[in-house]
Amino acid sequence: MNKQVKVWALVVAMTAFVAGPARAAEDAALLKDMTSVIALLGLPCGKAVSAVKKGENDHIVTCQDGNRYRVYLNPEGRVVAEKQ
Amino acid sequence: MFLLVAGCAGVERAPPASSAPAPETAATEPSKPAPADAAAARTEPPAAGLPAKPAAEPSGKKPGATPAPAKKATPPPLDLTALETRLKETKAIGVFTKITLKNQVDDLLEQFRAYYQGRAKTTLAELRRPYDGLVLKVLSLLQDGDPELARAIVASREAIWGILADPNKFATL
Question: Quick one: which of B59, B46, B78 has its CA closest to B18?
């Protein structure tokens, strides 16, 4: 039992070790995407520093300059950024 | 940007760089290679004479270098469909950014449609400004992550405008 717990703990630790960098890369890509979108829409932001997923294709983005936007895909297929 | 083009030229030959540097100028003349040619010349002394010349010239000078220049001497002009396809496939920009660009391209096309149908009071010259603005936005997003596509877009900029500005060609889109 003790050995099984240790093995599982090792598996979890290794998964986190591998998944961590991969997730960080995805987060960085998402932030870059959000930064570009907000810039394309002509809104002030500077750089997106966090993006919290609200739903499918729906994020709350916090910018370096303090602005917050809801960036989402509307039913017409348009990307919209609403200031929060 | 110069370094990237020079790096590519270092692998393939200087003459290809003569067609590459269009992004730097973001100009209406794709055959204007001087700035990056100078950069390429710095890194490619053996072919220093060639980079300073227009793209057409190198092909007649060095038979051994002909295959390489022929590959990248003149990128074929893109049409809007091909541009859209490559933009969809590029990894340089994210999904939301691609959709936003598509939205803006569609908006621009709608402006042209309205102009040709007489629904808009704009002139063709006035439509050039949003077109140039959109092209610059795309280039700014691609220049680091997908410089090849950026170069191709710069090289095709006038060809694409030619399609948009011609009512017969525009109708075929």
Answer: B59
3-state SS, residue A58: strand
**ipTM score over 0.85, yes or no:** no
- Confidence band, pLDDT 50/70/90 cuts, at residue B18: very low
Q: Which residues of A touch B93 (CB under 8 A)?
A: 33, 36
Q: Are B94 and B58 in contact (CB under 8 A)?
A: no
- Report the predicted TM-score, pTM, of the whole model to 2 decimal places: 0.63
- Label residue A37 exposed, middle or buried (CB < 10 Å: 0-12, 13-18, 19+): buried
The pLDDT value recorded for residue B68 is: 54
Comparing CB atoms, the residue among B96, B103, B104 nearest residue A33 is B96
* Angle between helical axes of B80-89 and B95-116 (0-180°, round to 10): 170
